[in-house]
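Appendix B, example 12.
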Amino acid sequence: MSLEGRACLVTGGTGGLGRAVVLALLRQGARVAVPYRGEAGWQALRGAAPHGDGLFGLAADMGSALDAARFADAAAAHFGRLDGVAALAGAYAGSGPVESAPPAEWDSLLQANLATAWATCRAALPHLLKQGGSVVTVSSRLAAEGGAGAAGYAVSKAAVLALTRVLALENAERGVRFNCVVPRTIDTPGNRAAMPGADASRWTSPEAIARVVLFLLSPESGAVTGAVVPVDQPGG
């Protein structure tokens, strides 16, 4: 995939999926900007990076339109351009049926999943429009199937899917593509800890999803926009 020298912004880059995407991009010769909330996660990512000169990071709250704009501007200034975005930041919670789940859970999931995707795409778009580019978001199979006991998560991820389709339509003639990957359960340490009795053999590895994300960020997928891509097989 032709990613050598391209500048990409990856939200959620210190998490299970985001880390795999960041490291895969760096190995392909891309330069990567990562906003982070915790210093420890950022330092761990830096330590795992194959070459540190291609990695840029700043503390930022990407759920804030102001913070997201500041970070996107800083990343574009640092690299001289912005070619791609992987909007992967998000969270999961499922405390029970709608009538008993705490209202704070609903609000926090809309913020973590939808607001971060909206603010990130909005902030990056002016930079991407300068030379064209690609954006990849992440939804969930629960967006279509529903998730009993996890309304906030399912609804917020459905909204990410709708947002991606809107942005794809709005930018189809402007040279910026928007596509969405849709995993079921990702095989991360966090998910294994949260679901110790589940059969993880059917979960999808972050590395397998990362390969799809990289394809959608690359020029090889230049004819693809507005796509919803299921990525839910155990591929290694």
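The chain has one domain: 7-230. Residues 32 and 83 are 10 Å apart (CA to CA).
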